[in-house]
Design goal:
The complex is a heterodimer of chains A (about 230) and B (about 120).
Chain A (H helix, E strand, L loop, with lengths): L1 H9 L7 H10 L9 H30 L7 H4 L2 E3 L2 E3 L2 H25 L3 H31 L14 H32 L2 H5 L5 H26 L1
Antiparallel strand pairs in A: 1-2
Helix pairs in contact in A: 3-7, 3-9, 5-6, 5-9, 6-7, 7-9
Chain B lengths: L2 H6 L8 H23 L4 H23 L7 H8 L5 H23 L2 H5 L4
Helix pairs in contact in B: 2-3
Classes of the chains: A mainly alpha (about 230), B mainly alpha (about 120).
Chain lengths: ~230, ~120
């Protein structure tokens, strides 16, 4: 019995694929997901987070649909004057590129983690964290400008529908919090890779890098939706 | 062991660097395109279609390649990607509800004509 279970979970190449694989993975009295448990748990956490962000965005959709007052034009609200010429949405575009760049460096960090290239993994993770911190900094600038110059408050603003402020601060604030938490998370994992913690305690297994990467890519993923629905729509 | 065979070993997600760099570049291009939608003031159905198209393409590449979903087993893919589909029902309900609330506000308060009109 025990021996049999071991051969099934251990021998990856003999495992059935396709739809039949789904059935056997769930039906057998054993581990359903053939991934490290930390990775499965991170995916399930991200699934729950998907629902939280979806609820926020659906709430935003609902208040935007129901307001009888004009919705402020994000293209103008988030325009930035560079050299006396207002460029629409430019700060948000730069923030988007910063986050995508960080996602790219994170993907490379995961790749070098698999190659056991400690130095490159740490450097790429720290670069990711630095880009994330840059993103949060730009968001702080954006919020400051919006509050101090445009007079946007969670309960109202001079441009139109009062719900603009409440949904904006809630959605981007919650996303910014995720980015901030991610920066701390990345620095912790990078430090552990760098100091050889995983070499000493996990037998040189850097799967934590990939799990941290999943979280980071998710943060980028959420931004894709916020960018589309809040800033562009 | 070849690269393709290696990727099939459980939990092992090592793929050629080129895939990541390609997707990275693609994300940049798609983001530029979605920014252009706003920059060139596209309006109406064309604007919304393009926004959604670029959004889903970006999201798809991030999940499939960067998050390695394309190489995971179907059991995990289904467990994670199918539940969010029920959100479409939630969205549908809220659209119907939103339209109803909007009409109720118009008939009860009749604000729209006074406040919306000067902007058009």
């Amino acid at each position: 019995m025990n021996e049999e279970a071991l051969t099934i979970t251990g021998g990856a190449t003999g495992v059935q694929t396709g739809l039949g694989g789904v059935v056997t993975d769930f039906a057998d009295d054993r581990q359903a997901f053939h991934v490290p448990w930390g990775k499965a748990m991170m995916w399930i956490f991200l699934l729950s987070d998907t629902f939280i962000f979806s609820c926020f965005l659906i709430g935003y959709m609902n208040v935007r649909l129901t307001t009888t007052v004009n919705w402020p034009n994000p293209s103008e609200v988030f325009a930035l004057s560079i050299g006396g010429q207002p460029i629409p949405l430019i700060l948000i575009a730069i923030m988007t590129f910063v986050l995508i760049t960080s996602s790219g460096t994170m993907a490379l960090a995961v790749n070098y983690g698999y190659r056991r290239d400690k130095k490159k993994t740490v450097l790429l993770m720290l670069a990711t964290a630095a880009l994330g911190a840059t993103f949060v900094g730009m968001q702080a600038f954006e919020w400051t400008k919006l509050i101090m110059e445009e007079g946007v408050r969670p309960w109202g603003n001079p441009m139109g529908a009062p719900q603009f402020g409440s949904t904006f601060f809630m959605i981007t604030g919650f996303h910014g919090m995720h980015v901030s938490a991610g920066v701390i998370y990345l620095v912790v994992i990078a430090t552990r890779v760098g100091t050889g913690y995983y070499d000493r305690h996990r037998g040189g297994n850097y799967e934590m890098v990939e799990i941290a990467g999943l979280y980071w890519h998710f943060v980028d993923l959420v931004w894709v939706f916020i960018f589309a629905f809040f800033y562009l729509w | 062991m070849t690269q393709a065979a290696a990727s099939h070993v459980e939990g092992h997600q090592q793929h050629p660097l080129g895939i990541y760099l390609g997707v990275w570049l693609l994300l940049f291009v798609l983001s530029t395109f979605s920014y252009m939608v706003d920059y060139y003031h596209l309006q109406g159905a064309l604007r919304w279609t393009l926004i959604l198209l670029f959004m889903f393409l970006k999201a798809g590449f991030i999940v499939a390649i960067f998050m390695h979903m394309a190489w995971e087993r179907l059991a995990l893919i289904y467990a994670i990607l199918l539940p969010p589909l029920c959100l479409t029902i939630f969205i549908g309900l809220m659209v119907i509800e939103g339209d109803y609330t909007f009409l109720a506000r118009l008939t009860a308060f009749g604000q729209a004509t006074q406040i919306v009109a000067p902007h058009h």
